[in-house]
Amino acid sequence: MSHPVADGAAAVFADPKAYTDESRLHATLAHLRVTAPVSLVDVPDFRPFWAITKHADIMAIERDDALFTNSPRPVLMTAEADAQQDAMGISTLIHMDDPQHRVARAVGADWFRPRAMRALKVRVDELAHTFVDRMVEAGGECDFVQEVAVNFPLYVIMSLLGLPESDFPRMLKYTQELFGSDDEELQRGTTKEEQGMALFEMFTYFNELTAARRATPTEDLASAISNARIDGEPLSDIDTVSYYVIIATAGHDTTSATISGGLQALIENPDQLQRLRDDPALMPLATEEMIRWVTPVKEFMRTARADTVVRGVPIAAGESVLLSYVSANRDEDIFVDPFRFDIGRDPNKHIAFGHGVHFCLGAALARMEVTSFFSALIPRLRSIELAGRAEHVATIFVGGLKHLPIRYSLS
């Protein structure tokens, strides 16, 4: 079956508001998977790219990291934002390729291994119960995203880094402004200069933290990053700060989006909520289904190092491809009844954490946080319903719900 190499519907990937209307978004992605699974997108303000919507093609591209590189374009941004980041010299794990990526990833890897996760679980469980208690204190009604979901994972990742609780609100503001730069409610100002200040202020904060941890090392991830050495040399200032930024942001917004989107899915599918209530042993599978359902990281980009072909479509050296995880996680060729929220789905071959050498460093922590929170909430939940309209962040990279008004009764 031949396909066109361009479909106007693929412009959806460059439209932040498209991600605020899930039914329209998924209808568009389903159309693209059938009619133009590899589609050229050439729209104003963005450099052209190829949108990849099928699970199998995304997996193949992720596996071939020698042919498809993260550098120089790891995420979809406007041409102006690309140039701004290049000028700042930002180089996080998602910007790197091997061998540099392998060495840099090792700096933080030990903090996310099973042994470290087991040690952290006590703190995560404690925080989960604390935030469920806060729901009780709220009196049976709250905006679950803003009052619970954004704070719980923030407390976890900030505790891991070893940052003082007094700095948590500031870090929350920075991360929401960075990932919400296309959202009128969350963005910092309306000009690129104003929006760039969030990143600048975050860099300033982490530069000061680096200096403090180098002067007085402590037993936390912040010290591990600040005092890391590669080939005997300390990380440069920009590389150190870039490392902090990826840990602080990726370890926060993705998990809060999964927890809030997961709760919405349980409310809207009461049979699945009851099923989980009746059989708590399903929690690990339910966690995976929430992650698939929400897919907080919408896309990553890769650039072809040499001429190649994807699903019969020629991709030239130097051209970029967008890997739509949102589309892949609803692919009818991979998932039985993909638009059904099924907490017992097994197998669940979602790729919300990516695949290959760039598989999410914090995947185990994210899974633990989701499992801990719902394990604390559901046994105490007597009733729950929506108390208003759920609203999504306008974004083309990372995001989920920004408001989820709920009414509930907890024991």
UniProtKB/TrEMBL annotation:
Belongs to the cytochrome P450 family. PANTHER family: BIOTIN BIOSYNTHESIS CYTOCHROME P450, P450, PUTATIVE (EUROFUNG)-RELATED. It holds the Pfam family p450. This is Cytochrome P450. SUPFAM superfamilies: Cytochrome P450. Keywords: Heme, Iron, Metal-binding, Monooxygenase, Oxidoreductase. It comes from the Bacteria. Its cofactor is heme.
